Amino acid sequence: MAKSNRLSEDALMKHLQAQRAPAQRTDTGGMILHTPPTGPSLSLEQMLAAEAAAEPAAAAPAAPATVGATVPAAAPAVVAFDTVVTLDLAKVDDSPYQSAADAGNRYDPESIDELAHTMATAGQEEPILVRPVAGRYELIAGHRRVRAARTLGWSSVRALVVQRADREAHQSVLVHNEGRKDLCDYGKAKVYQRAKAEGFVTTQDEIARMFATRQSHVSQRLAMLKLPAPVLAMLEENNDLFSMTTAATILGLLKEYPDEEALLTQAVLRLKADNAPENSVRPWFLQVLQARLRPQRAARRRPKVITDTAGRPLYTAALDGRVITVRLSAQDIDGDALLENMVEFLKASSAE
After folding, report:
1. Range 179-195 average pLDDT
2. In degrees rounded to 5, what are phi and psi of residue 289?
3. Please, which pLDDT band fits residue 312 given cuts at 50, 70 and 90?
4. What angle do CA 50, 51, 55 make, to 5 degrees?
5. Is residue 224's pLDDT more than 70?
6. Predicted pLDDT at 26
7. Higher-pLDDT residue of 186, 101
């Protein structure tokens, strides 16, 4: 017990000095007296326990950094909207409104590698567009750039953070998809179709306003969706096989020759198989069609030979457009009499 008191004596003195130091003082004119302490009396053990409890707990030592580890740039806890910040790539998610049909072949490894090579050389020239969702960031524009950055092993990207509700984000994804430089006419037609199907627009004029384009372009692109099924299948495989102008040519030929869908499909197949130019569709189609019809027309134009009972040629009749020609083959036939008979026949026919 004596040993315990001796060990605590220094602590007791420090405690008493601490109690006196902050105490209020009363000015009595010639002397300064400390205000006597108030409250219940405490034992030494109680005073030491109270002092130990008041001391702050020591912070745990930080874990040592791993040599060679890449530490991604941390996103700010609170991000101001409409500002460009650096985001941890691990916190960036694809948009749920970016369908596989929209992506098409844009995410194929070769295409992403080409973009990654450009970004490795020139850097990230344009920030991606994201919105905060549940502590993470959802892409609105920049899906290919994010994939290219991950291919390069980047841990962070620059991003423009915007505030968007779900439906606004959905519409923004559609608008950004339509505005891509690499999106062809058929791809735009499918975006217009989706915007209409999901209730963002109802008319072609509204589509034109939503995507800031001409109504005539909207009409021509949407018409591509009415192409024959075999042609649409080729477009699905290769979206930029031909433009809306060539599609209008195909639809015009199909209207003029409704029974020649198979031949038109062959004309389009040449674009894919032979790398033929788009403007060759119409002349190739007409050339093949005329070559096929020429024997039939020649057979219809073949002169008709009229003979007597003995097989001797008397007359040769031929049709050339709207002109009928009758040639007298036998020398003993009276042409004037034949002409009179023909006129009477025509009169009789018109009177019926």
Report:
1. 90
2. -65, -45
3. confident
4. 115
5. yes
6. 43
7. 186
Cβ partners under 8 Å of residue 48, min gap 6: 8, 11, 15
> Do 120 and 158 meet the contact criterion of CB atoms below 8 Å apart?
no
> What is the token pair recorded at 11?
């602590």
pLDDT, tens digit (0-9, with 9 covering 90-100), for 149-175: 999 999 999 999 999 999 999 999 999
- What was the pLDDT predicted at 319? 80
Given a contact cutoff of 8 angstroms between Cβ atoms, the answer to whether 284 and 270 are in contact is yes
> What pLDDT, on the 0 to 100 scale, is given for residue 73?
41
3-class secondary structure for the chain? Answer: CHHHHHHHHHHHHHHHHHHHCCCCEEECCCCEEECCCCCCCCCHHHHHHHHHHHCCCCCCCCCCCCCCCCCCCCCCCCCCCCEEEEEEHHHEECCCCCCHHHHCCCCCHHHHHHHHHHHHHHCCCCCEEEEEECCEEEEEECHHHHHHHHHHCCCEEEEEECCCCHHHHHHHHHHHHHCCCCCCHHHHHHHHHHHHHCCCCCCHHHHHHHCCCCHHHHHHHHHHHHCCHHHHHHHHHCCCCCCHHHHHHHHHHHHHCCCCHHHHHHHHHHHHHCCCCHHHHHHHHHHHHHHHHHHHHHHHHCCEEEECCCCCEEEEEEEECCEEEEEECCCCCCHHHHHHHHHHHHHHHHHC
Residues 77, 81, 86, 90, Cα dihedral to 10°: 70
What tens digit of pLDDT does each residue of 33-64 get?
444 444 454 444 554 455 445 444 333 333 33
Beta pairing, strands 136-141 & 92-93:
parallel
Do 130 and 55 contact (CB within 8 A), yes or no? Answer: no
| CA distance linking residue 328 with residue 339, whole number of Å | 11
- C-alpha 254/C-alpha 259 separation (Å) is 8
Q: What is the pLDDT of residue 265?
A: 95
